[in-house]
Amino acid sequence: MIKISDMINALTHYNLEHVEFPLEPLMENGAEYMGLADDYKRKLYINKDKPLSIKRETVVHEIIHAVHYLRGDLDTFSENKIEKLVDKETKTIMKRYFKEELNEH
Fold this sequence. Notes:
single chain; alpha+beta; 3-stranded mixed sheet; 3 helices; globular
């Protein structure tokens, strides 16, 4: 389980930027991204054109990606497994702190 202290620690290692999407060449297959964690540049990108409730959930989601990267989990789990885990942890945190704003997508 991700703790708030893990998330705050991750933010001390990453820069958070609100940017226009798509972010070429970081984007794949023309998919619509709400955000993106670039673990090599240590940057979290958030789509600046989305509503506040989506940006909040996206910030949580991308910070959790950063936590897993810092823990070395990307070396242990597949990308698909990490994404499912991050989605689950994001929903848990959003339900706890932002119940009224949880986006089911």
